[in-house]
Amino acid sequence: MVEKINRIDARYYLIRINKNFYVVDYSDPKDFRNWFFVTLFPKNLREFDAYDVTGDEEQFIVDNLWKYQKIFGKFFAFFFFVNFFTGFFLPPPYNPFYLTYDTFILKNWFYFLLLIILGAVLIIVLLNLFSLKNINLDRYNKYTLTEIRDDQPINFKKMLVLGVANIVVLYPILLFFAFYWSNYMMLILFGFIAPYSLCFIKFIEFRPSMRKLKYYIKEINKGEEMKYLPAGSVIYLSSGDQEIVILNRGPTFEQNGKEVYFDYTGVKFPDGLNAEMVYYFNHEDIDTIIFKGYVNEKEIEYEKRYKQWTEENNLSKGVTKIDQNT
Questions:
Q1: 85 vs 80: CA distance, rounded Å
Q2: Quick check: pTM over 0.70?
Q3: Coil, helix or strand for 318?
Q4: Same domain, yes or no: 147 and 206
Q5: Total domains in the fold of the chain
Q6: Residues 185 and 297 in one domain
Q7: What is the pLDDT of residues 6-52, one digit of tens each?
Q8: Each residue's pLDDT tens digit, 194-208
């Protein structure tokens, strides 16, 4: 589960997963994929760079105006719904649509459209100004934070259709409501608040902290020396969608009439140990690390001894069969 700790600026968030802290590069205002047509880029909505800053997290907990973002969001939502419903249900003397009616809006709709576009450009400029904080993350280990879908993989065609629909259908409908009724309340609600909320949704909500969404975090391989996982770690194997919890390291096994060794054995999570369902696999077979097990001085020493053992023993490494229990 992703816990949002702090919004650092327009671009970065500080989060906590289990006991580790990460800075997430979530919404770069210089990247056009983060505004206007975000649904055209589904991967950009579901996968983000993250940096493990555990131990240095205090320097990323900053006191800024972003802490009021939630309050502002609730205020605009309240303003939108109150005025929308009162505009349709209150009689004319008290109706905000009636009180703000002006034929000037419909007659000069093109100029108001230009004003809306200029407002969006101004927001982009301000977002860039609010993301100028000098954050150096090069010295931290880099990870990817990726959304897990239990039901199905990303449907790119569906997301593309949704993105095109937003452009050619939804935005024109909102602008039609903004101009046709020719009152300033509808202009504010459907010309500014609603379109801007859709255009800049990634700067408004932090998707990884939303309920019912699952994420896993995976370290990006930079070619450094391989580090074995401790017992208790939970992983996905390559080409697999079953969560596996690691039981032990270095088991030997007879394969094709020859004694071999594997880096790990594991069992299905959360089922636990079942003698008929034990997985033998190697470190290179791991696709995703969901949870890393407990590490202390004993584990570090064990990893050193295990690495030495793999270099000195005369056994070959076993071949993993992902679709079988070897």
A1: 9
A2: no
A3: coil
A4: yes
A5: 2
A6: no
A7: 888 888 999 988 778 999 999 988 888 888 777 677 778 788 899 98
A8: 899 888 888 888 888
